């Protein structure tokens, strides 16, 4: 199961806002990108905008292919 590629786009932020995002992300053990996604989903939910839940991604090491050494 391959996840769909994520949409990439440039985002310009004030340095103070980015620093606040970095701190919030670190507190939640997330990347800044993941923190932005979480915050956007929460904000949209508060406004009543329905967004499909993110695809569950496998965690950990990939399983070894039986055909490979």
Key descriptive features of the protein:
2 helices; 69 residues; mainly alpha
Ordered list of secondary-structure elements with their pairings:
Elements: H1 15-27, H2 32-46
Helix pairs in contact: 1-2
Give the total of beta strands.
0
Number of helices: 2
Class derived from helix and strand content: mainly alpha
Rg measurement, Å: 16 Å
Along the chain, the helix and strand elements come as: HH
Which runs of at least 5 residues are low in confidence (pLDDT < 50)? Answer: none
Shape descriptor reads extended
How much helix is in the residues? Answer: 40-55%
Which percent range describes the beta-strand content?
A: under 5%
* Distance separating the two termini: 22 Å
Q: Let me know the average pLDDT.
A: 88
The biggest sheet amounts to:
none
Structure description:
With 69 residues, the protein is mostly helical. The protein has a domain at 15-46. The protein has helices at 15-27, 32-46. The longest helix is centred in the middle third of the chain and has 15 residues, at 32-46. It is extended. 0% of the residues are buried.
Compose a concise summary of this entry:
The protein has 69 residues and is mainly alpha-helical. The protein has helices at 15-27, 32-46.
